[in-house]
Amino acid sequence: MGLMSSPIEFLELLAREAAAVEFEGPLVAARAAGLAPERLAELEQAKLVALRVRGLLERRRQREVELSGLYDTASDLAGLRDLDAVLRAIVRRARTLLGTDVAYMTLNDDARGDTYMRVTDGSISARFQRLRLPMGAGLGGLVAQTGTPYVTANYPEDERFHHTGEIDAGVGEEGLVAILGVPLRLGPSVIGVLYAANRSARPFAREEVALLVSLAAHAAVAIDTARLLAETRSALEELSAANTTIQAHSASVERAAAAHDRMTALVLRGGGVEDVASAVTDVLGGALLALDAQGRLLARVGEIAEPERSALGEAVAASRTEGRSVRRGDLWYAAVVAGTENLGALVLHPDEELVDADQRILERAALVTALLLLFRRTVAEAEGRVRGELLDDLIARPVRDLEGLRGRARRLGVDLDAPHVLVAVGDETVAGSGSARQRVMSWANTYASTRGGLAAARDGRVVLMLPGQDAGGAARAVARDLSRVTGRPMTAGASGPTSDPAALLTAFREADRCLTALSALGRAGEGASTAELGFVGLLLGAVGDRGDRDVTRFLADTVGPVVDYDARRGTALVKTLEAYFGVGGSLARAAELLHVHVNTVTQRLERVAQLLGPDWQKPERALEVQLALRLHRLRPPAG
User: Fold this and answer.
1) Which residues of 522-544 are buried (b: 16+ CB within 10 A; e: fewer)?
2) Alpha carbon distance 220, 495 (integer Å)
3) What's the pLDDT tens digit per position in 336-386?
4) Spatial CB neighbours of 590, under 8 Å, sequence gap ≥ 6
5) I need a labelling partner for 371 at 20 to 30 A (CA). Which of 83, 272, 448, 608 fits?
């Protein structure tokens, strides 16, 4: 027998990893060569040993592949970044290592009490990929419930499992026959199932079950690791958010402390509302308005428009009700209040969103603004009382201690030896009491002090002593400005100027008579001086409260017919009388003044005689007519 009929040939077949069928070749050749039966028996024995060795080598090679796959899976876990990617890799390796058509993984849903498809590899059925298996139903549901591996060579025919229509439809659509399922264990708990399945009947060896169990263990570790990483990441994010919040809170607390210190310093050093507004915008940024109770501007920092009155009123009312700053659009409003009194508002347009501590800064600024406004009012009222007491001492009685009064005036910045005019204002608002009179007095104190003068209340009048020499102009300015403040006509009479402190009492009495004369003449809401009214004004001023009624009756009795005639006929009899008396009774000069012929003047005077009677030129009647004409000129036109 040659070499090819010896056992060595089986070693060569093993060396080149020949297929199992090739190991029959040496026996076939030996039988063909007529080898003795004992030699054929040896060769048969050698073949069996060679096939056992081949099987052992094959199993070891498969084991190496499995171990390599497990090692690669462990390496993936060590560098875990994406749970989905790792689970897909495990399922793919299960399919590759076990040589199945499909591999897939389900995870338990504790909330719903079932298990759902998580990852598939090799699947072609969308219905199968969406399957949910009730606990205990099908092979997978049984594995998930019991935590025990299950295998079937032919699932559709296997009666050990609880078949449901949905599961069987999905498995049938995928075409699966042989299925192996092993539990995903995490400690004592089962969190899911790992499967390997074929579309044809096949058994699964014990080694394949063990391999899939090992892969399932890796998958469970991956899921748990991902959970821990997610929890760690979430904890880190929460810590980061908390740290950010703490930093923001710390920054806001620091801002609040800085704002508190700065505004405290403002109060202590006597700062104003403008300083508060600057402090707020320095700390919070943005632009700010400070408004008084009437919505007038007290201070502005930065570019910010004044809100509409209706929007301002609603926001300030809401801030007062809530006791907090309120937001309306891009603006924040904080009411400036003292008790129940509304003093104004702060309106902030911030650059960035305000946190709670920033709102507190704005509210603290509103409180400081209220304190400053109250302090300023208190100071003004105290100064007004001092100024009022000085003026009252000057106009209440004859001056005795002139040097003492001069010293008091100098401390208030007033020079009593400079020219001054006296202005008297009075009506039922001034003569009465309450907030309206207080508002008038507050205005008068401010008006006088800002001009270097004095103001006081005296005998139902508000009296102002103002530097200057134009008594009539001062009276008209006071009447105009005070009418705007009160919203009603205010009348002002004035006298002066005088540079003699001792003459101020007389000047006050003349201003008071001028005010009375204006009221008698029906010129409410106007201002004038005694010089502008002349002796008629002094005369009417002495009449008193009956002046208006007496003047009307006197005019009607004296020149009423002439005035009525002019009104009906459009003539100029009143103008002719004024010209005639103005030139001392000269017809020629009156005609020249009126730019008419002497005969025209004569005819007009004859008409006057018909209306007033023939004795209108007698001295006593002529004086009454002239006085009536002067009063008629001073009174405002009727209607």
Assistant:
1) ebbbbbbbbebbeebbebbbebe
2) 106
3) 887 777 888 888 888 888 777 778 888 888 888 877 777 766 665 566 566
4) 576, 579, 580, 582, 583, 601
5) 448
